[in-house]
Design a protein that fits this description.
By secondary structure, this protein is mainly beta. The protein has one domain (12-226). It has strands spanning 12-13, 22-23, 28-33, 41-48, 61-65, 71-78, 85-92, 97-99, 115-121, 128-130, 132-136, 146-152, 156-167, 170-171, 178-181, 191-194, 201-211, 217-226. Strands 1, 2, 3, 6, 7, 9, 10, 13, 14, 15, 17 and 18 form a twelve-stranded mixed beta sheet that branches.
Amino acid sequence: MSAQELKCDSVRPLLGSSSAYKNRGNRCEGMYVADVGSRSIDIVSFTSGSIRYDLNAKSPLKLSIVGTSPRVNVRAVAITPKTYYRMDTVLQRGKSLSWPVTDVLLPEHLTDNRIGIFGWIGNEEGKTFVPVDVRSGASAPGSDHVVLVAQTSFDADAIKWRWAGTQGKACQTFGSWEDAISHSTPANSPIKVDFKKLPGGVDCVELVARSQVSNDWVTLKFRVEMP
């Protein structure tokens, strides 16, 4: 995809910074100014295996999609609080993206434990998430063990999830609730959900979190495309 074809998101770039969010050829990437939103649960990473890279090696990362979708939006975000970073691009099945770490990740010290990466199809309001394979240098292919990472914008004392298969555009009957965590978790903490039991194809997922302050539940419903 050419720089002319790639459309950057409408976030506000961090003015005066060489790391500001902008078109960087094969992707849009950089730091931006965030707007404060309401209470929410957000998906911040969906990958095949864990994200592992060494900024000191300065080796470009290689991204590819895992699944059957022919064209997938890919986004990277910072998962540390008050770090407003984004990378947006589009990948086609069978293609890969060479992602330089020296443009933004290295100068902003965004190490592998501070970044989440996910793919999706559909629109912003109705994403079907697609796992992304991330490799560094000449590393071996990633694990087929798919892991999702979520965050809550509020302090939570319980987070649960359940899943269902699909039939056409409809979700089938959901299974029983499982604990993602069963203890108090501060806002913006990464919460890993292991999807190893989910079958291949498109599945429905429901994620709920209970506010530690108000004791009410916040819900996120979405779909995932499993390899």
